[in-house]
Amino acid sequence: MEANLEKEIVLSAIQPTGTPTLGNYLGALKNWKEMSADYTCYYAVADLHSITVRPEPKDLRRRTLEMYALLLALGLDPEQNTVFVQSHVPAHAQLAWILNCYTQFGEAARMTQFKDKSEKHPENVNVGLFAYPTLMAADILLYQAHYVPIGADQKQHLEITRDIAERFNGLYGETFRIPAPFIGKAGARVMSLQDPTKKMSKSDTNVKAFISVLDDKDTIVRKIKSAVTDSEARVYYGEGKDGVNNLMGIYACCTGKTNAQIEAEFSGKGYGDFKAAVAEAVVAELAPVKEAFDRLMADKAYLNECMQKGAQKASYVAEKTLRKAMRRVGFYQL
Ligand code: TYM
Predict the structure, then answer these.
(1) Which residues partner with 148 through β-bridges?
(2) What is the phi/psi pair of residue 76, to 5°?
(3) CB 246: neighbour CB atoms within 10 A?
(4) Is 53 in the pocket of ligand 1 (CB under 6 A)?
């Protein structure tokens, strides 16, 4: 614990909206695990965020537990890291309210995720969806995070977080650390296997478009085999080769190889060989996660205990920042 005081701070979160995809994994979760060796890390299951789409209560409960188990299955040590569920730490919702009052309507309305989601679901454009980024800002600022590992799609939310924090600090003096995004080079944007111009998403209606981190070997092989490529049958990174570029990105992320090395490896070979190698690399990457997940899900008591401890550790830190912000704003202190 003492040694951790010197380390820089990392925070990230993932919504329990379904089993994460290979995109979530390569874009964010893999980095979470890697960063946990060198940073003091706070990782949350963002259940408050996930109710903007009104899930069934029983699904929300189950997915929260599953997502928590999955975070531990990645190999995140719950003693060394603080792994918790967002709604177990009330400070998140409390700070989010305060930050709402330091965020302009216009700047929240510019968020592309808000625009996309309100276009896709015009029947449920709720205020929560609109205020989503201020809750995300609260998540990050409460822990005084230096870095936030995310995929490219969340970058704009990090920018607004920085703007809000700078505004608040400008008005009241240093209160929040200004966080920086951490976006890995490969894997920042894993694309759909069926339409490689769209990001891979767990809510895609075509299940062949995404790989779930809990898919079994045969499913992974089948999905990668049927991934959309092009008619050129040559493996190289280039314009107009979105499908191949995407598979190369996935392969690079799983194996640590560069594009040049991949091109050399498959020179003179067709897409069949290439796809088989990509599938094998993905299976090797995900199999241990699935195995650990199945083991953890069989021990709910242990998961509950970890959640409880995580919530306590997170609350201790979050409360400190919340009290400071409230003092600054002028709330009457008892
Ligand atoms: P969420 O739950 O949609 O996704 C979790 C993480 O996965 C990344 N990601 C991807 N990366 C690469 N390729 C893809 N196709 C892909 N799809 C998703 C996301 O960028 C994200 O990093 N708002 C966040 C959750 C959140 C959060 C936070 C994140 C709540 N509070 C505080 C960081 C800090 C979200 O919806 O992520």
Answers:
(1) 181
(2) -75, 120
(3) 23
(4) no
Question: Per-residue pLDDT for 113 more than 50?
Answer: yes
Residue minimizing CA distance to atom 16 of ligand 1 = 23
> Phi and psi at residue 152, in whole multiples of 5°?
-60, -30
Q: For residues 10 and 146, give the distance between their C-alpha atoms in angstroms, rounded to a whole number.
A: 6
Q: Which residues are annotated as a binding site for ATP?
A: 15-17, 23-24, 151-153, 190, 199-203
Strand-pair partners of 180: 147
Q: 323 near 99, Cβ under 8 Å?
A: no
Check: pTM over 0.85? Answer yes or no: yes
For residue 5, the model assigns a pLDDT of 60
CA-CA distance, 109 to 103, in Å (whole number)?
Answer: 10
Q: How many residues does the chain have?
A: 334
The angle at the Cα of 71, spanning 16 to 178, to the nearest 5 degrees, equals 80
15 lines ligand 1 (CB under 6 A): yes
The dihedral of CA 124, 142, 153, 250: what is its sign? negative
Q: Extract the tokens encoding 56.
A: 């069934």
